[in-house]
Amino acid sequence: MIHPDYDSPGSLKTFLEEKGMAMQKKFGQNFLINRQARVKLIDALDINSSSFVWEVGPGLGAMTEEILQRDAHVTVFEIDRGFAACVSNFFSDYEKQGKFALVPGDVLKTWKEEAEKKIPDRFFGNLPYNIAATIIADMIEAEVRFEKAVVTVQKEVAQRMCAKPGDKDYSSFSVLCAWAYDVKPLIDLGGGNFWPRPNVDSRAVIMTKKEVFPRCKSPEHFQKILRSLFSSRRKTVKNNLTAFYNDGNRAETILDAAGIDPQIRAEKLSLEQLLHLSDVSYSNIIEDHE
Q1: Would you say 78 is a known binding-site residue?
Q2: What confidence category does residue 234 fall into, taking pLDDT thresholds of 50, 70 and 90?
Q3: Which GO molecular function, any one, fits this protein according to its record (predicted)?
């Protein structure tokens, strides 16, 4: 099977029609038809023959081909059965060489089993808008990190990933990303770079693994307290922690020990302050159980 011209909407449309396939909106399918942008994204991934890459949502394999041409190993996760069959056919020679593997189905349900076999050093994807934040957060919370990741997401998601304390986009997701990675914007991609053209703008970001991690006594407790602190953004940290402990006095005691103003809101707290607060809180709980 010969793949279509990845730069041509007409060629892509004809290929799909001839195969009796159609784009499925529920999967957030859009092909990046700007070749220069594709090359820039893979350049940023910084791969070579010793690299192992996970790619989410390969579609018809435009980015997969770019990765394979650089002699890296790639495992793709594809939920669409038609696309999965196509990329399996397109890259069958690479599969025989042990350079290509396909994991069919919903990546949110399949990635953990793959991680048990091997965690690659690279992660890549033009991530479907409806799962982008979820999959990134799920992997960080499971402490599965990659040396480098390059992901293209809806611009608003990228802004949350890069947000700093005090920014309107700063959230628990921002903190999770900053906890595990240094995150930097790479390139903005308007709708015209894709086919079909989406109604939103996209942004690619580079995520570089932080050397020191997790920097707290209990990653599990840190995640729990983080969710609690940002659960009601209009409430103060004292109010949210009171609900977390079901004890207002304990909340105030821990905040005082951590040196944090009880009347501040969570979106004003830095990663360092949140990690310190988590450690103070965790120590307090451990003392209670001794």
Answers
A1: yes
A2: confident
A3: RNA binding
